[in-house]
Structures are given as structure tokens and as C-alpha cells.
Amino acid sequence: MEWSPPELRKILTRVAGEAAGFLRDKFGSINLLEVHGVKARDETMRIDLEVENYVFELLKAEGLKCLVATEERGVVKLGNDPVVIVLDPLDGSKNFASFVPWAAVSLAAAPINNTEPPRLTDIVAGAVAPIFNWPVISFAKGEGVHEGEDKPLMTPTRRLLLYYAENAQQALIVEKLIEALKARGMRVSARSLGSASLEVSWAGIGRALAFIDVRGKLRTIDITAAVHIALEAGSYVIVERWGARIDRVEEVGTVIVAPPDTWGIVKSVLCETGHCNLVDQALSRKETQLIPVARATQGH
């Protein structure tokens, strides 16, 4: 069965919301924080496995018989629908295990064809559901961003710069960006909050000045839904490896998100610090098409 982007958005919104509610109900349950193994750089807790199983059951109940690419079990085949779902059932697991409720469920969907493996740029719908009591943020390609069923709620004051860096060279980009933003009269509070899908979404819909992760550690499951929410909201998005496959877990390199009013500052700082090559990876959305920013601005 084939599914349209709006149909997929509605399904993913329901599933993400139900899974977030499941996590809310389990929040603070010590026995669910038992470590069942270590995969790549992350520990797998019992809660990771339980919420992942719950999402599989929810997808099947929705009639979505697809492939699911997920952190804990790799690729799971629920049926033969030509759709792949990228799932992070608990983004922010370290926060969750520390009783900090800044975490989310993230799902994104892309069609599958028989000629090419699905890539990060192929996503057509997605949803990010905070586990705290807040509406699901979702999008369908060309249909805009929803928070619940409304447009995203805007904050009257933006001060957050969301960032991740691990050494002095990486931190230099953040330091220069803070200086540049303050030089333009903006008040800046730099934070690392521990859930990439939420932070990218927050920046993408304009609630933060920017999101920057220059560690090179983020993976497809961490950011797939969120970067497309940001694009659909009109933000500029850099992903170092836009060509990453989404039918398996792959690293995507540097990820940067900036709303239109701070994009020029971010771009200037990147070039000033010797990272103009990253600007070449920036995309924005025009109607339903992803447009390389460098190409779109040639001659201007």
C-alpha cells in the first residue's frame, strides 16, 4: 500500500504522541533503567526496548506495514509497504535515566523504490514528540509544520544558542558565533540540553537562535525528522552527509540549523573560522523542493 505525506504525518503524529505518553507514564521507574547491553556509543536500557516494541505495535495497529530502521534492532520488517520509518524511540535517554524530562520520540518516513536506497533527503513526513506535556511537532512535505494541529507557538524572546562541541577548535565556532550575535544586539545563552531531535526542532521553528553540533557524532536516527521539520519551517540546514542512507543507522557529521534571521551571521562565522565547505552543504526548502543554498544565491 502506498501512503501520501499527509497520511504519513497523521500516523506518525499519533504514534509519536502515544509513545511519548508511554514514556511519561514510565518516567522515574528505576527497574526500567537497567542496562541490557551497549551498542555503538550508547547503552541500551530496558525502557529503550520496551518503547521500541510499543512503537512497532502502534505502527502495525495503524496499518503501516513498512521497514523500520531503529537504533536497538537495526532494520525490522513489519510488511511490504514501500515506506521506511526512521525511529529513535527515546532521544535523550541519558536525560531520561537522570530524571530530566527533556527527551523525545522521533519518527520520519520516506518512500522506497526498487532502484536506489532511501537517503536523508528523501524524507516526506516526520514527527517529534516531547515526553513532557507538550504537543507533537510534525510536518508533511509541502504542507508546513504543525504543533498538535496548530502552527508552532512562537516565543517573544529568543536567547538560546544550542550547541555541542568537544574540543577547543570546535568550540571556537561557537565562541565566534556568540560574539557575532551579541555584536548585533542579541542576548545569548548557550546551552547543551541533551536531545538533538528536540533542539533541532526548537531551532528550526524559530525558538532558538541556532543549533550547532560540530562533533561529527550525530546519526540518522538522531536528526532525520527534526532537520526536515526545520526545513519545512523555512530554516537553513547544514548536514555534512545529506546522502546518508536511512534504511540503516549512519553518522551524518556536522549538523547546523539557523532560522532565516540568523542564517547570515552563522554563514559568516563558518567562513571566518575556515568552514566555508560546510556552507556548501546548506539546504533550504522552496515549496516542495530542497534547494542547495549556494546554488540558489549564485549571482546575488
UniProtKB/TrEMBL annotation:
* Keywords for this protein: Hydrolase, Magnesium, Metal-binding
- InterPro entries hit by this protein: Inositol_monoP_metal-BS, Inositol_monophosphatase-like
**Coiled-coil segments:** none
Give GO terms for biological process. Answer: inositol metabolic process; signal transduction
Query: What residues bind Mg(2+) 1, as annotated?
Result: E71, D88, D91, D222
* Cofactors that this protein relies on: Mg(2+)
Q: Identify the residues that bind Mg(2+) 2.
A: L90
What are the protein's GO molecular function terms? inositol monophosphate 1-phosphatase activity; metal ion binding
> What is the protein named?
Inositol monophosphatase
Name the species this protein comes from.
Pyrolobus fumarii (strain DSM 11204 / 1A)
Lineage runs:
Archaea, Thermoproteota, Thermoprotei, Desulfurococcales, Pyrodictiaceae
